[in-house]
Write a structure and sequence with these properties.
There is one protein chain. By secondary structure, the protein is mostly beta strands. It has one domain: Jelly Rolls, CATH 2.60.120. Helix content is 0%, strand content 58%. The strands form 2 sheets. Strands 1-2-3-10-5-8 form a 6-stranded antiparallel beta sheet, with no helix packed on it. Strands 4-9-6-7 form a 4-stranded antiparallel beta sheet, with no helix packed on it. Strand 6 and strand 7 form a beta hairpin.
Amino acid sequence: MVVKYDDAQVTTLGNGCIQKIHAHSGKLMLVEFQFQNGAIGAIHRHPHEQTGYIPYESFQFEIDGVTHVSKKGDSYYVPSDALHGVTALENAAALDTFTPRRDDFINK
C-alpha cells in the first residue's frame, strides 16, 4: 500500500489538533498528528503499543505519570494500556505507529 501525502485521510480533532492516517495494515499503522502551540492530547489509554517520532518542535509528554519534554528528533514508546497524553509547547507534529492498527481511527 502506498498513501500519497495529499490522499491521507485527515480528521480535525478540535482544540488545535489534526490527525492524518498514512499507510496501514491490520497489524500496523502510521499516523501523523499536527498540534498548534498549547494544544492538548488528553490523557488516555488504549490496548495498542505505540512508538513515535517528533519531526519538528517540542511536546511535554506524560506517560504513566512521568513527565518528559521531548523535541525535534526525539522518539518515544508507549506500552499497551499506559496512561499518556501530550501538550504542544510550540506548533509541533508527531509521527506515531500503532500495533495493531487503530480501527477506531479509520473512517471517523
